[in-house]
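Regression test case RT-17, inverse folding.

Input:
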């Protein structure tokens, strides 16, 4: 409760805009992905990263990886990138046991 801020730096924004230009029309939904996700997964290799997903349509979800900081104060949680992923990819990650939280249906 003492460390609830998430930051999106200019560098990280430029990163996802350059690498994932198809996400530009959905950029206004970034905060919603973070504050009202459909599910949250753990990252396969980085234990301090949570990956937030929000359904976009029947075939795609928006994916928002956030690097978490356990320290109070100074360093905030950081958005790493933002992009679309296929439902089939998310299903595969679910099967690998990466789901931390899922919206009840």
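Golden output:
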């Amino acid at each position: 409760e003492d460390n609830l801020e998430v930051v999106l730096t200019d560098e990280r924004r430029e990163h996802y805009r350059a690498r994932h230009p198809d996400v530009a029309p959905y950029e206004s939904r970034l905060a919603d992905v973070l504050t009202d996700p459909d599910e949250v997964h753990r990252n396969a290799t980085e234990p301090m990263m949570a990956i937030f997903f929000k359904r976009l349509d029947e075939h795609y979800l928006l994916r928002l990886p956030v690097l978490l900081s356990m320290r109070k104060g100074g360093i905030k949680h950081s958005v790493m990138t933002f992009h679309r992923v296929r439902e089939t990819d998310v299903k595969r990650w679910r099967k690998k046991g990466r789901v931390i939280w899922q919206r009840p249906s």
